[in-house]
Write a structure and sequence with these properties.
Length: 290
Amino acid sequence: MTIIDGKTTARQAREEAKKRTEALRAKGIVPCLAVILAGEDPASVSYVTAKEKALAEADMASRDIRLSADISEAELLSLIAALNEDAAVHGILAQLPLPKHVREDRVIDAISPQKDVDGFHPVSVGNMVLGRDGFLPCTPNGVVRLLQTLNIPLNGAHAVIVGRSNLVGRPLSILLTRKDINATVTLCHTGTKDLAHYTRQADILIAAAGKAGLIAGDMVKEGAVVIDVGVNRVGDPSAKKGYRLRGDVDFEAVSQKAAFITPVPGGVGPMTIAMLLQNVAAAAEKTLDA
């Protein structure tokens, strides 16, 4: 059994992004990401801090925009409109979740597709579905990159995805069925009856349901590749922060049967930020042709 080291693969992708940045800087362009954070949700603050650190390490610029949780939807949309027009900003990221009174779809739709480095805009999603050039969502793209780096056979493989969110499950099912990857995909969700019946068939099992320990040892076939996208905070008084991070997979049990498995943390998570840097570099490169 091999524990997949997402940190190493992510480091390689981040170094690639840094080299792309160096080439852009030589042409007078500094890749810049505007990061919008409304409110002080601890998890969101942590994610934003990690993203800004990664941007700095890649020699990219960042616009750290911290807003009050009571900012109006209209004010937020006005801010995004201004960033869309700012030629020095190549990518715009609105950290989710947003305050409850702000409609996420309105905010996502307001970001210019040319600066949608999260890959959430309907135009980006449409390009992904049609196989056209565009920004791919970071976590699904990171999972694909991880599998490809490990030279895991994807052509004709049966991939079972547990979770149908618009952030991970659905886009990942589309990416894996592209002709250049050519996997056969089963997409499972809360309405799936006898989930284990499907997960036991998986050559590649991807858990992205957001439920700690959902995938038990008896739900995985021998020799499967198991990718755990879940990041769940589970209370633990003995831990320094009062909680521990657990994935959607029962790591101890499943690792006894899997050929490859990602840990949580240290598996898929680092790939998400690495793919974000790649998207920011790509957004800046597009300005060369404008």
